[in-house]
Amino acid sequence: MITAETYHVPVLLRESIDGLDIQPDGIYVDVTFGGGGHSREILSRLGPKGHLYSFDQDGDAERNIIGDDRFTFVRSNFRYVKNWMRYYGVDHIDGLLGDLGVSSHHLDDESRGFSFRFVDAPLDMRMNKRAGRTAADVVNNYTEEQLSDVFYLYGELKQARRLAAAIVKARQQQRIATTAQLMQIAGQFVAREREKKDMARLFQALRIEVNQEMQALKEMLCAAQELLGQGGRLSIITYHSLEDRIVKNFMRAGNAEGHVEQDFFGRTQAPLRPLGSKPTVPTAQEQERNPRSRSAKLRVAEKV
Known about the structure:
15% strand; 7-stranded mixed β-sheet; single chain; alpha/beta
């Protein structure tokens, strides 16, 4: 049985919620509900007039829905947060939290194909099981050039071109449908001492492509900037350099590329003000308790 406790262990819980500077009567959004750990902490700090909207596109997360009149669950990709807030009649929010990346639940569910720990799982990797394209669809239908781009851009794999060529050759014999088949092909390009790291990067690249994670993140951050009222907070936890770079740029410059605009007097024109010059990282104790937190970085910004 999946419970909120086993579904996902929240990372940087106290630090990320402290970053929101919760106002008792405020309106807040948790765009990555998962097991509900962060949402429960937000609710514990809200007064009777406050409200929390929590998003998750995975139907499994609905098992963790919180019974509270101040809570609304939205089963949707967080890229649509602005549309949903309009639907609920909300024109501004006081804070938004995002715990990006794949949850403990996804990694531990063999049927989802997110992890190379399960050697014969289906190549699925969809966060939303109702969505159409799977990792198997990507591996079997993308051109060699498209596959190479995915592996290089999202996995930073040095053997991206050779791996893509080998996949295209192998799929001519039979469809690549399981993690075991993919790992067998990739294994010839991975040194033994780097096997786990490179396999993790390969699976990360496919997961990002299947779920359009980078584009969804950019759309969510743009919406957050528009929704946040003056003084509102944005608190985002990232797990790899690709998403962290996007979040850092948005908080510093208001766009994913990091292009800083200045007024006539040379003053920076950005909708957000980063709080702190460096991201917050988990303590050694948290990293030991929760291995998933080891690569986590928390960045917080305030709407100006």
